[in-house]
Structure formats: structure tokens, C-alpha cells
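Example S7 (C-alpha cells).
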């Protein structure tokens, strides 16, 4: 029978940049809870189960002063990661071919302590002994004030997905190749969907919603989440008991909004807010939300952690956001206005100061602005547009902006970054962007997001080596389109190329 390892070789897990794992983001969250974590520019990062390095290696590329180590058992993923390391000449990154259960050593030398340890999509999908070893690594190899990020499926919410997993496991023949079993899974979706649509029960509607999501999801996710032999969700309280046994304590969740009872609604918030024990409160919030998945942040048990966030620490951070509004922005009144993210998430704000701040963040993205600079310049914009400022407006702005931070519409950071004001005469994409474009359609942005390219965008990015003018690039794009039987108006193609170049610049893919 093929093993779990065989399935990763047959259907490799999609390796993407994960913004919630970025050490700079974790450091910013830690500051709110009184923990002074290491700066990204000089930190040591360990990723357990790093797959092809799609999350780890961009960290090494964008922060050459960091030291990034990955551990991965699937040989195909290791070879993929090391090929990119070699091509880019990354002397601050290494990916080791080994199991998490093996000693954390390289050529006989202990790899030492790490400021950040990342384990995304690993814990629930490995045997109990490997889970315990993962926690043990975090307990023994975290540096003082270090942060471990561990994601896992949680109960009770995952029970809903568990019903569909049970159905798939019973239908898809065991022992087949991963790709064959995945095809069987989709055949089951086709078989049961009509019956589920005719069934008005809540269970049937939940199953339909999950099937709809899985039809759009990456094949690797569908297989490794629903068809692997191991997938064991657990309660947060059980996870923390085991973490405590390994010498670890709870810092926060990578999704801050999940920690606040107010997000349950006004009628439900008070009883949950009254729960004094922080871990018990977190468990009860999971029950109320029927939460399916967690991204827990842990520290050594000798680290002093605040029980509630220090909101005054917001003033010591910088912020960035990639938001836009379809409507003209009204800075003269406190009327609600919607902003949306590239992923389609919508956020409504009403305070003129907040609207102005989001305008400024959008204009400067991916560069971040300090709290003071953002508030001062937002205030100037409001006054320019006929608005007024007072203490109440400032307090309301702080409340609204904190809500946006909690919901991750606005991201805190200590790395301000930079933006490009004008395109170069001969635009040049950095080597990481071109190397990733040559391998697929996903490129890691300067803010550690996954930039998905279409065929034309990938072709353009590959040719941005700094030797071609805009007109030469347009000619190349025209030739590429003609080779596929497509003719495009030169003026329209030039406009499309300029737009794509600015998109690349906005994502930090172009050299200044």
C-alpha cells in the first residue's frame, strides 16, 4: 500500500508564501502582548515540513541577513527547494532531507536555537509520536522570546468536515495512487450532489457547501486534507496541555480577531468576556464559533506574556494595506464606506480619519507608514476636504483601525519596506520573481503574499531582465500572442503591459 510519503511525491503539496507565518508579522503581534521578539533582518527561522520552500525561501531572499532552515521528508520537495537555493545563490538558506523525528542536527552539529519556528499544515496530519516530537523541538530549540507558529485542525468545528472525509475514505479505494484516489473523490461529488440538493437538512447543506469549496481548491489540498490516512483534529485545550508538557505557553493566535469576544456579537460577548482564565476563554470561543482550524503562536514557558493586548503598543508599529474602494471616498462625513482586498474580502468603515488612512496605505503599498505619520497625514487629508478633527474623532479612529488590524485588513509591521514611484526605462524583476515565474504561476511578493500570474503576466515577468525597453517588451508580448493565434491592438497591448508592470511594482517584484 502506498505510504503518506508516496502521496506527496505523486501529488506534491502546493508550497506558497503564507503571510500569517511571516516573522515580522509575528513579531508585531508579539509586541502587543509584551514580548520583544527578534527582528526579521537578523533572525533565525526554522520551518518543519517546508515542502518545496515556497514559504521559507522568499523569507531568505527578501531578508539576506536572516538564516532560514527547512526540514522536509519528501525527496521531491527537497530537491525542488535546493534547486531554487542554488539558482538564487542563497547562502542564508538550507533545506534538509529528514524526518521531524530525527535529531535536529546537520553534519553532527546541533542547529541551535531559532527565533521563529513554523509548522504549517503538519501537526494534524502526522502520527502522535511526530506531533510530540514537533512540540519537543519547539520547547528545546526556541530562543528566548522566540515564537512558534503551529497550525492544526480543531474540534468541534472540524466534525462537519470529518463527515465528508469519512464518506470519501469509504468510497475511494485504499492503496491506489494519490491522483487516482483524487479522481474517485470528484466522482463521488458528482454522484451525491443531486441527492444532497434534494435534502433540506442542515447536514446536507453543509456538505454541499464544503463540496463546492473543494471543487475550487487545489488538488493537493483536497487529497492531503481528506484522503490521507492521518488527519486528527483536536480541542485547543488538549493541544495546550501537550504544549505545556513540552515547556511551551500560549502567546496569541495569528488571526487576532478570533481572540476577542466582541466579535461574537453584542448579545453573546459579555459571558465570554467574563471568563477569567485565558486558555479556558479561548476554548469556549472555539466552541461558540465551531472553529475548524487554528494558527496558534507559542513561546517558552519562561516568557512573560500579557493576558490582554497593550493597545498603546500600536503607536510603536508601522502599517500597510492593499485595499481599494469602488466608490468615491467621502472624507467630509462619518458615512459608511466599503473597502475591499484583492481576495475579495470587504471591510466597512465610517470615520473620515480611517478612510483617509486607508487611502494613504493604498497609495504607498507595499511601503508601510508609522502610526504617527499615518494619523498626521490622514488628519491633513480630512481637513483639506472640509472635515474637522477632535479628541472624539481620534478615539473613534483608533478603535476602527484596531478592528481592521484584528481582522487583518491592515497589517502591523516593523519592516517599513519601500515602494516604486516610477517605472525604469528598462524594467527589471528581481531574480526570485523570475525564477518562480519560470517554475509556475505563483510568485512571492515583498509582503509575503502569493501573486498569481496568468500566461501573459508570467511571460512578461520572465523577460524583465533589465535589458529591454517598454517597446521591446510589447513586441515580445505581441510575438507570444501571435504564436498562439491571437492578434492584439498594439496600443491596447502596450496599455496592458504598463498595467502589469505597475502591478509587479506594487507587489515589490521590480528592482528600484
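Recovered sequence:
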Amino acid at each position: 500500500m502506498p505510504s503518506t510519503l508516496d502521496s506527496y511525491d505523486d501529488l506534491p503539496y502546493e508550497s506558497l508564501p503564507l503571510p500569517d507565518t511571516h516573522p515580522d508579522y509575528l513579531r508585531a503581534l508579539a509586541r502587543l502582548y509584551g514580548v520583544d521578539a527578534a527582528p526579521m533582518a537578523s533572525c533565525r527561522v526554522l520551518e518543519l515540513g517546508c515542502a518545496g520552500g515556497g514559504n521559507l525561501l522568499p523569507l531568505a531572499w527578501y531578508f539576506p541577513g536572516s538564516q532560514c532552515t527547512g526540514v522536509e521528508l519528501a525527496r521531491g520537495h527537497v530537491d525542488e527547494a535546493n534547486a531554487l537555493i542554488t539558482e538564487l545563490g542563497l547562502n542564508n538558506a538550507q533545506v534538509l532531507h529528514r524526518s521531524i523525528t530525527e535529531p535536529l542536527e546537520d553534519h553532527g552539529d546541533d542547529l541551535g536555537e531559532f527565533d521563529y519556528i513554523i509548522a504549517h499544515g503538519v501537526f494534524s496530519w502526522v502520527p502522535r509520536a511526530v506531533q510530540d516530537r514537533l512540540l519537543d523541538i519547539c520547547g528545546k530549540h526556541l530562543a528566548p522570546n522566540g515564537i512558534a507558529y503551529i497550525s492544526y485542525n480543531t474540534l468541534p468545528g472540524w466534525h462537519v468536515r470529518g463527515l465528508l472525509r469519512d464518506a470519501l475514505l469509504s468510497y475511494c479505494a485504499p492503496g491506489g495512487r494519490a491522483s487516482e484516489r483524487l479522481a474517485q473523490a470528484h466522482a463521488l461529488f458528482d454522484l451525491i450532489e443531486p441527492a444532497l440538493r434534494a435534502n433540506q437538512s442542515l447536514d446536507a447543506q453543509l456538505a454541499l457547501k464544503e463540496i463546492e469549496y473543494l471543487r475550487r481548491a487545489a488538488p493537493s489540498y483536497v487529497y492531503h486534507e481528506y484522503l490521507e490516512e492521518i488527519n486528527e483534529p483536536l480541542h485547543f485545550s488538549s493541544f495546550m496541555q501537550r504544549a505545556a508538557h513540552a515547556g511551551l505557553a500560549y502567546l496569541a493566535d495569528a488571526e487576532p480577531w478570533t481572540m476577542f469576544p466582541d466579535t461574537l456579537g453584542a448579545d453573546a460577548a459579555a459571558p465570554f468576556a467574563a471568563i477569567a482564565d485565558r486558555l479556558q476563554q479561548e476554548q469556549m470561543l472555539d466552541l461558540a464559533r465551531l472553529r475548524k482550524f487554528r494558527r496558534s503562536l507559542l513561546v517558552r514557558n519562561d516568557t512573560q506574556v500579557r493576558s490582554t493586548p497593550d493597545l498603546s503598543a500600536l503607536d510603536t508599529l508601522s502599517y500597510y494595506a492593499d485595499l481599494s474602494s469602488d466608490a468615491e471616498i467621502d472624507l467630509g462625513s462619518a458615512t459608511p464606506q466599503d473597502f475591499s482586498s484583492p481576495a475579495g474580502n470587504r471591510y466597512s468603515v465610517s470615520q473620515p480619519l480611517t478612510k483617509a488612512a486607508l487611502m494613504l496605505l493604498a497609495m504607498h503599498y507595499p511601503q508601510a507608514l508609522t502610526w504617527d505619520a499615518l494619523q498626521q497625514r490622514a488628519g491633513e487629508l480630512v481637513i483639506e476636504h472640509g472635515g474637522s478633527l477632535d479628541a472624539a474623532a481620534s478615539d473613534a479612529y483608533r478603535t476602527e483601525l484596531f478592528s481592521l488590524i484584528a481582522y487583518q485588513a491592515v497589517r502591523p509591521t516593523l519592516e517599513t519596506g519601500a515602494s516604486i514611484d516610477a517605472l525604469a526605462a528598462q524594467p527589471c524583476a528581481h531574480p526570485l520573481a523570475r525564477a518562480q515565474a519560470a517554475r509556475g504561476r505563483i510568485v512571492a511578493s515583498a509582503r509575503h503574499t502569493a501573486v498569481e500570474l496568468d500566461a501573459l503576466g508570467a511571460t512578461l515577468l520572465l523577460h524583465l531582465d533589465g535589458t529591454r525597453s517598454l517597446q521591446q517588451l510589447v513586441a515580445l508580448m505581441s510575438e507570444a500572442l501571435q504564436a498562439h493565434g491571437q492578434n492584439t491592438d498594439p496600443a491596447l497591448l502596450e496599455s496592458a503591459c504598463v498595467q502589469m508592470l505597475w502591478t509587479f511594482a506594487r507587489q515589490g517584484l521590480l528592482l528600484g
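Notes on this example. The chain has four domains: 4-155+233-300, 158-226, 311-413, 431-506.
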